[in-house]
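The following block was generated as part of the benchmark described in Methods. Ligand: 3-acetylpyridine adenine dinucleotide.
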Amino acid sequence: MAASVQEQAGASETGIDACDVVVVGAGFGGLYALHKLRENGLSVRGLEAAPDVGGTWYWNRYPGARCDVPSLFYSYSWSPELRREWRWTNRYAGQDEILRYAQFAADRLDLRRLIQFDTRVVSATFDERSERWIVETDHGGRLTARFVIMATGGLSVPNTPDIPGVADFKGEIFHTARWPQEPVNFEGKRVGVIGTGSSGIQAIPMIAQAAKQLIVFQRTPNFSVPARNRPLTDEDHRSFDEGLEAYLASLEQSDFGRVPPTAFAAEVPPRDVQWKHYEKLWQEGGSGGFLKAFPNILVHPGVNDVAADFVRQKIRETVKDPKTAAALSPEGYPFGVKRLCVDTDYFDTYNRANVELVNLREEPIEWIAAAGVDTAKRSFDLDALVFATGFDAVTGALLAVDIRGRDGATLKDAWSEGPQTYLGLTVAGFPNLFTITGPGSPSVIGNVITNCEYHVDWITECVTHMRRHGLATIEPDEEAQVAWGRHVAEVADRTLFPKANSWYLGVNIPGKPRVFMPYIGEGYRTTCKEIVADNYRGFTFGVSADRERAAAE
Ligand code: N01
């Protein structure tokens, strides 16, 4: 039986709780970190702002919330036991099922006793004398740890735009990423939704079914493909099990390899061949097939244009009113370089009599009044307003904590011109601080659970190496970090990704530097492994001050 939070954390000389590792966040990354590090003999402590585990799946419980990665893959890959004991019901699991899975994993692994819930970390300061982090919480709690792991998630700080007058609105206000625990009843109500990203696109069809009237305020139309969600069959489970070994091996080699070395490396198939393939993928459902339909789809403008035309054609075929169809059709940015949305009946929803699309490009929102939303042309009376306006992604949750490294330098200052990391795992000047799915790693691209797992495995190996060799600190060299940042940017620049104003670039947050944050190069894991094999190339380890003193005496 594992030790409890109190047993795990001893009292330090200062009387402050002390442990080896503080893990901030109890989503999938944080839970696995707690488990794996404890298994490796470290005393660990988890701090979580929410009252329960689950991270983003705890908060995003809006109607229609569902994962866009198939559930058989959106699971811990490292545990045969968990796999055996949990059976997904649907091809794409809904938020409630994913949250139950996180709760099941936490219970099965006996992790809750390690986590202090309802506790937000407000600061983490590296004390150079003791070479330990001092972590402070919003309850006034303090604890010290040799290592801090920020498992705070890439999509956890909601973005609520500062629209004038919002405080005057007399109706109910919701944000998709802070949805209430209790069911929300829209029956008989006039509801407005602002935002048509993945969250809005999932919520809109569900709200339309419940509400008397739904007004969708759209600034930028998005590409979306059908999920074609369905219950999983025995055959689905069998075929997943049969392919499991190959799937696990594929994760080891390279988890993300969408970027061929040059834009025109792969041949351009004839348009009708591409079209036929997209038609097949459209019928199958899901985004994964589209994003990998052709090796250069996210690189070659000509190939990408065909996919964009295909989706626009589908919108025209589905939406009966041509003006609405035109307004829903994305133009002016490539296909798939903003997160490709996956929906159920999204475009068809605009054929309902109780749904109206307001194109904010033609009539921007000017004011939110007590009664509803005023655009440049009209006033819409509303009983409820839903913000589906996304997140301060990737860096938001890291910068929400006052993190101070060597010489009291703040992470905020270090990242004032955009995040700088080595491998998306570590930051120069911030020893023994690890970021799970941090900027400069695959992060929010692809399957975030397996991205988290890889980082936890890497950190565990690193910490074990340090303990074995009596090393007190690890931090990346400035030059290695700069070179990695350059590489991350170069890879992105070889693609069409920077051509869209997406949250990947931080442009949705006023004042945030325009930097492409995820790493989308090939063979990320191979690179990380090579760096370790090359004696942690680009890192500097520090011997503990005690050992140095002992050696000098
Ligand atoms: O957020 P978004 P999201 N006035 O940033 C609009 C993951 N996720 O929560 O594009 C009017 O994509 C904004 O308009 P514009 C997934 O990775 C996954 O939907 O800035 N509109 C946009 O339409 C996803 O990509 C799943 O012009 C304003 C919308 O709000 C990520 O989370 C489900 C505005 C925000 O879209 C984020 O998705 C849900 C303003 N002032 C989420 N400000 C699945 O797994 C913003 N907008 C399926």
